[in-house]
Amino acid sequence: MTKSELIKNISAQYPHLSVRDVEVAARQVLDYLSDALAEGERIEIRGFGSFSMHVRPAKQGRNPKTGEPVLVPEKRVPHFKPGKELREQVDYPEAATVSGGKV
């Protein structure tokens, strides 16, 4: 699902909200999450999952074209760990739809 599809679905589900309002809200939430991760904060959304930053240490790599050694610098990468409810919904989708989203 893309951001525009998310906005369209939310607008359809809540017709009293304009598409523009939903778009602004979605953008603000995503910007806030991005800023928090960039500052090294951990984000936890109960029932959905958590976002955190993992650090890949510097390592010695190799240029595939020439074969000469190259230093690959340390890198920070975002990491998502799904919550229990999301894992169960993904693992057992038929049980989640039968019971209204709860397994």
Strand content: 25-35%
Give the number of domains. Answer: 2
Query: What spatial form do the alpha-carbon principal axes imply?
Result: elongated
Portion in helices: 40-55%
End-to-end Cα distance? 23 Å
Helix-strand pattern = HHEEEEEHH
Largest sheet: 3 strands, antiparallel
Number of strands: 5
The averaged pLDDT comes out at 91
Strand order of the largest sheet: 1-2-5
What is the number of helical segments per DSSP (H or I, 4+ residues)? 4
Low-confidence stretches: none
Report the structural category. Answer: alpha+beta
CATH superfamily of the largest domain: IHF-like DNA-binding proteins
CATH topology of the largest domain: HU Protein, Chain A
Instruction: Specify the CATH architecture of the largest domain.
Output: Irregular
Describe this structure in words.
- This protein has four helices and five strands.
- The protein is α+β, with helices and mostly antiparallel strands and 103 residues long.
- Helix 1 packs across helix 2.
- Helices cover 44% and strands 26% of the residues.
- A hairpin with a 6-residue loop joins strand 3 and strand 4.
Topology readout:
Layout: H1 3-13, H2 19-38, E1 43-45, E2 49-56, E3 59-62, E4 69-72, E5 75-82, H3 84-91, H4 93-98
Helix pairs in contact: 1-2
